[in-house]
Amino acid sequence: MKKLSRNSTYGAILTLALVASACTAVSEPASTTGSPPQATMITSTTLDAPEITTTTAPATTTTTTVVLSDVEPALTGAASGDWRLFPGSGNGGYDVTLVDLTLVLSDDMAQIEGVAAITAHATQDLQRFSLDARDLNIASVSVGGEEVESDIVGPELVVTLDDPLAEGDPFTVSVTYSAEPQRYLPPGVPFPMGWDRSSSGDLLFVHGFPGAAATWAPVNESKDDPARFIVRIDAPDGLEVTGSGFRSEDGDFVVWDTQQEIGGSTFAISDYEQSTIEWNGIPIELDLTPDSPVRDKWSELIPEMLDFHESVFGPFPFERLGISAINGKQFALSDATRILIPESMPSPVLAHELAHQWAGNAVHSTDPETYSWMFEGLATYAEALFINRDNDSIPDLRFGVPSETRPLDRVDSVDDLLDAVTYQRGALLYHALRLEIGEDAFFDTLREFIQRNLHGTAEIEDLQAVAEELSGQDLTAFFTGWVSESAVPELPPIDG
User: Fold this and answer.
1) Level-2 CATH architecture, domain 276-484
2) pLDDT-derived band at 21, boundaries 50, 70, 90
3) How far is residue 313 from each of residues 45, 173, 343, 382, 391, measured CA to CA in Å?
């Protein structure tokens, strides 16, 4: 990295990345030391899709008032989860290991008929539990192959067993349902999520932000319950299905298989024209519009961006990457192995989302509501580094950051996850650390921090520990000032 001088201004572009996409992990990393095993590809002989029987008027148990069978409170799983900012999402009493969804879409992609097959185990003695389900028409619910009592209570599908499960018991839940899923606007989020169709009908964009996944599938939207997520999609003829994870075919279904919570999974369906770039032995799939004006540009720029990020963070952490166009949107998202971005987005946004493959996807936080700034700030700083890669200037990341803000570790609302503090003050911390400990120690710290925690979780204490180890400095006062105090510290001076 070049010696610093202070002679330029960087007007950073805020990418409205989601908290759910900054807390994902996939089980097919690049073949590097210490990485987890490769995911098993799905074929019709390894996992059979649940059968869907199409009906013109599916049964529904949706009611406004229900009377549930008596169950001891000690045998009832919590009907709210562990999202501090999304208290209505998630459920307790069980842990999910596999969500296997089969979806048949109508020709206009406005309706679905589905089967959700969920594999879990009880984390307490359990007779009643809930699944998040918003405006779904439930035809039947079975546990272990036996139909059970179920009721819709508000946004929850409440399941009651005849006989309780013991703590640790495995069980399977199968839900047959239909829906006309709509766009969902989570409280505090400035753009709709969930099931979002373009007005022309040629694009369906789906993302599982807390609250949104439950508009198209009965799920447990707990942030601490990552599970293997498989979605089998029968889409209208002529449209291509893209998504998080790894693709295979299963009869009439396109299958996407990933190892992450459903809240961090995404898929998009459009009349994509697919091309593939080979970069360092890794296939980079581009799913863009036919005759896309950016295909040639991105084919040249993406390898350059990946080369740069790899020099900063270390080897690319996955064995593949896909990029899908979501034209008409005003934001970009990055899940593990899949980026969704409008073709009209400026190039720096693409650099930001590519950086998330390391910072936020391969390494993420156990508490994304508090520490999303760690990875949004790091991706923003990597974006700035790439923009300034050919000169020795300092990006002026104080742009948009006043002299006093909320502390980075005080996140009181969803708005706080998407503001300039998360992105700009978060990025400014990394730049201040660079000035504090010097060029060599700083870039060694970034690389070691990512590689040491690859395909796992890390908190700010882990970053501090690596920086102290490699610089030989006590950085307690530095991190306290930048993370936990309202006043934005002065940048350390530049040597030379």
Assistant:
1) Orthogonal Bundle (1.10)
2) very low
3) 38, 41, 26, 10, 20
